[in-house]
Each structure stands twice: as C-alpha cells, then as structure tokens.
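Before the break, one more example. Copy the sequence into your notebook; we will annotate it together after we see the structure.
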Amino acid sequence: MDRKLSVVANVRYQSSKGKGASKLKGLLRYVQYRDNRDDHSPQRDRAERWVDHGLGSNFQTIAANCEATKSEHVQAFTLVINPNPNLVALMPEERRVVFVQALTEATVDTFLAERGIEGLEYSYAIHQRETTDRVQPGRDNPHTHVILPGSYYSWQDGDRLPLYMNRNRRENDIELLHQIAQRQVELLLEHEVGFDWEQRYDLAVLERDVRSLMAEMAPADAPAREIDTAADMRSPGLSLDI
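Here is what the structure looks like once it is written out:
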C-alpha cells in the first residue's frame, strides 16, 4: 500500500478576532454531541466523550480555557486524526477505539516533543461513524478531534507564547504532523495486527477486487455465491491487473 494514505492528520485554526470565541464554542458543541451532521448523541450517553489532557472534559470548559489561553490571532487549533478505514478493519472491533486513542496521543505527544513544546494542554473527542463513500460504504471509521490552545507556556521565558503551525519551505509543521501520525500508525499496527500488517492489507484489497470482478463477470440472473478468493485466483483464464 501507499503508506502516505495510512492516516489523515488535518489542522485548522479558529481566529481569535471577531466572533472567533463563539464560533469555536459552536464547533466544540457540535463535536461533543454529534458523530456526523445527522446523528445527535445525548450528553448522558457520552460521559467519556472527551479525553482530557489539561484543557477540559466538556465543551464549556474547553471553550473557557481556550479563551483564557488564546493568542493575538488564534483562539484554538483543531486537529483531526483519522486512520485509513481499511487498516482499521484489520483489527477486532473491540480494539479499534483503543487503537485510535493510542494513535492520537502518540501523535500529539510526539509532535509537541519534536517541536520542543512541553506541557501543552489539549483535549480530544472520539467519533465513531461509518464511511459513506460509494465504493465501500459502511466501513468502521473511528477518528478523533483534537483541540489545542492558541498559546503554550514556555518555561524558558516564564510566560505563554503564541503556538504556531507553520507551513513553508523552511519549516512545515503540518507535514511533520502527518509524518509522525504515519509513523505511529505503522508502529501500532505492528503491535495490534503483526509485522505482516501490510501484507494482510494488500491481501484484503486483492480479495475485495476479486469479488468485485467476479460480480461484474457473473450473468445478471446468476445466483449469488460465496467466492473462494484463493481458488478463483487459480482458475484458468482469470487475469488480475491491480
């Protein structure tokens, strides 16, 4: 597989200007109560929605702490850590949320450490939903929304300094974040799935493509059948170009 596609690690920021504080609070409320635009999650069923690393365990507290620690230009940063659903499918269902939690904390902590930032508060919320794409809808797609404040405490300076997310030739923090997330995915997959996780992934993709090809080749009125992928691959006249 293309390992660059193993995880998505996106970064956005909410400006501290104008209605920035109210916009952030609205976003945090959305993250707390919904997994997507259509499904509402009652708070009483989401006691552990947020994982608190010093920024708060509910949207009101997180919003207030972001207001207290905002920089001149940034109310807060929002990150999304989303592993490839096809990789998530390699794990037992009961291990998938644990995997995403471990990925999120390892990625954020390593990212901050490599930038020399210590003790930065953050919180993240876990979302569990299914993919809605046309090719493979319904795949398990757990991911996290991470909230970082607009500033951090510098022990050297004895004060809070603005937190920057640079994206230029000399210093690309966004690319660094993605590289770290990718590295952490690979390490966690080795632990959760095994050192042959990539081979298992490639086999799963091959099986999916064979099933799709066989379905296309079958007559419209042919009865559905279970496909023995290994046997079908050995059938004469079947050529796969993937």
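The chain has seven helices and seven strands. Residues 43-47, 226-242 have pLDDT under 50 and may be disordered. Try to locate both features in your own notes.
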